[in-house]
Structures are given as C-alpha cells and as structure tokens.
Design a protein that fits this description.
Number of domains: 2
Structural class: alpha/beta
Order of helices and strands: EEEHEEEEHEHEEEHHHHEHHEH
Length: about 325
C-alpha cells in the first residue's frame, strides 16, 4: 500500500529530503550539500541518491511511495516540470521532472520552493482557514508566495511571488545606481552581511571585526550572537533592512489587501525578535489605514520544514485535479 510521500526541498546550498507517513509525520530525513558546479544532471543525481538512501534506511521500495514533491528555488512550471530560471542553481530551461523519472517510476510534483512553503503554512498552520495571505522568506535572497481566496496564485507564466526582484530605492530618488537596486539587494541576509563587511574595517568594537580580513563567511548565527551583545553596527544594518522590508510590505498590502503576512527564512529565525518590530513599524507608516487595520503578522512555526510539509498539500492538489 502506498502510504508514504517523499518531500524534497532543493536549495542553492542544501538538499533536504524527508519521508512522510500517512499521518503526515516526518519519520526520516536526509540532508546533503547541493553541488551546483557540475550542472543540473549532478543535482538530479544527488536528489535521487538522497531519496534512495531514505528508502534503503526505512526498508522501503518505490512501490511504497505515492509521490515525490520537489521544491525548486526559481521559476518552474508545475505542470510540465520545466525550471525556467533558477539562478542559485545555475539552471535554466531544464525539465527536472523528466530527469528524475529516469530514476523513479513514481508520480513527481514540482513547485517553486516558497510556494511550497506557503502551501505547508496554509495547510498545517492555518488549517486552510486563511483567505488572502502573503508569505515571505528572508534568507540568502528574498522569495514570496501569494494566496488569494485560499488558493495559491502562480501567475500567467509562473513568476508570481518573485518579490525579491522588485526594484526598490530607499531614498525615493532615481539615479543610474538606484535603478539597479532590488528588494533582496537591500534587505536579504546577503545584503545585510555585505553592508556590514563594507564598514567592518573601521569598526574594531564590532563583535564581527575578525571577519574583515578573513575568508570566513558571516552566518546567521554570527549575526544573532552579535545582536545579543548589542553590536551597534549589526543593529544598524538589521534595522535598515527591516525598514525596507516594512515599506515594501506596506505597499503590497495597500495594493493587494492581504489579511495575513507570514514571515520565515534564516533572517527571521535568527533575528526575528530584533527585526520584526522594525518591520511592523515601517509597515504601518507605509500602508494605507484601511487595509493596514485588518492585517495580521506572524512568523512561521514550521521553519525549514514548511516546504517539506507543503509537499503534502501539493501532492493532494494534483491528485485531486486528476480524479
């Protein structure tokens, strides 16, 4: 009996796979590094090995699996399985569904990773009792997903939700430089770290000063540790990112009148208590009064598992459409 689902969250740095049982519980995980330097076929092979290792560990075969759900960090056609563009993977115009079928004779379901996370949040955090919701994940980049009238909105060519690439200029003035700035270029963890690094050399009092002339990368835990010690440089750039985020969200709610905003991603997990109040303050300055009065802010409790649980909802959606 096909009682199990495999859910895979493919990211630019890691492949996280999970075996989910008929009670919607994760009973086995596999995590490995994403190797993007060797091309898409290597990525597919590593996904297949990840899935096979789970099956072997649990003494299962393909006959026990009802489907494989896969979240991809880029634009993807969920019907054909073609990745249009996934910059963090270095992949364009690639049919990942067909490539995976070379390894498994199992139904395969493909979706953008943040969309998948939104499906998981909608089903398991809100029990499908949410109408118009914006989900935004802030990490290495910034991704979004849109729920309208309780349904995921993918857009005319499956690009809906790519809010990280919105052009944003915090000064409000146009210039050749400002036109190249994006939301994630100003407010992602990458942006926060780059801005901190640009000032570290002259900030010997910063908890992160040792990073200014080293090849070590500043990670979320380093930022969190610096915040706990009231590092002024880190606080400045976290707050700057929060102000940009709040302003962008305020404009989106004025336009689209969401009732719920859910925030997730590495930045929120590591620094949510510091950045969320700044986001909310800037949000209420930017949003019109009426749509702002009905909004509810939340951070996801599923964390990295949101996309894994979203795989359950995706499989159910496609199975229902075929019945």
């Amino acid at each position: 009996m096909k009682d199990y689902l495999i859910s895979v969250d493919l990211g630019g740095t890691k492949i996280l796979s999970a075996l989910i049982d008929k009670n919607n519980s994760i009973i086995h995980r596999d995590k490995r590094t994403t190797v993007i330097s060797e091309g898409e076929e290597k990525i597919v092979k590593d996904i297949a090995y990840s899935i096979q290792d789970i099956l072997t560990a649990q003494n299962l075969t393909s006959d026990d699996i009802k489907g494989i759900s896969l979240g991809v960090p880029g634009t993807v056609n969920p019907h054909t399985g073609v990745i249009g563009n996934a910059p963090n993977l270095g992949v364009t115009n690639f049919n990942i569904k067909e490539a995976l079928r070379q390894y498994f004779n199992i139904p395969i379901y493909i979706e953008n990773d943040v969309n998948l996370g939104a499906l998981g949040i909608k089903k398991f955090e809100y029990h499908n009792q949410v109408a118009n919701m914006l989900v935004i994940f802030i990490g290495t980049g910034i991704g979004g997903a849109l729920i309208f009238d309780g349904k995921l909105y993918r857009g005319s060519s499956f690009f809906a939700g790519e809010i990280g690439h919105m052009k944003v200029n915090p000064s409000g003035k146009l210039s050749s430089k400002s036109q190249s700035l994006t939301f994630e270029g100003l407010a992602s963890r990458t942006a926060i770290v780059n801005n901190i690094l640009s000032e570290l050399k002259n900030n010997k009092k910063s908890e992160l000063y040792s990073f200014h002339d080293s090849n070590k990368k500043i990670k979320s835990k380093d930022l969190s540790n610096a915040l706990s010690k009231k590092d002024k440089l880190v606080i400045k750039h976290i707050h700057r990112a929060g102000k940009v985020t709040g302003t962008v969200l305020g404009s989106l709610v004025t336009l689209l009148n969401f009732d719920t905003i859910v925030l997730g991603g590495g930045v929120m997990e590591a620094m949510g208590s510091e950045i969320l109040p700044v986001i909310e303050k800037s949000f209420y300055k930017a949003v019109l009064k009426e749509p702002g009065e009905t909004i509810k802010f939340a951070t996801t409790v599923l964390g990295d598992d949101a996309a894994l649980y979203g795989g359950i909802a995706l499989e159910e959606e496609f199975r229902a459409s075929q019945s």
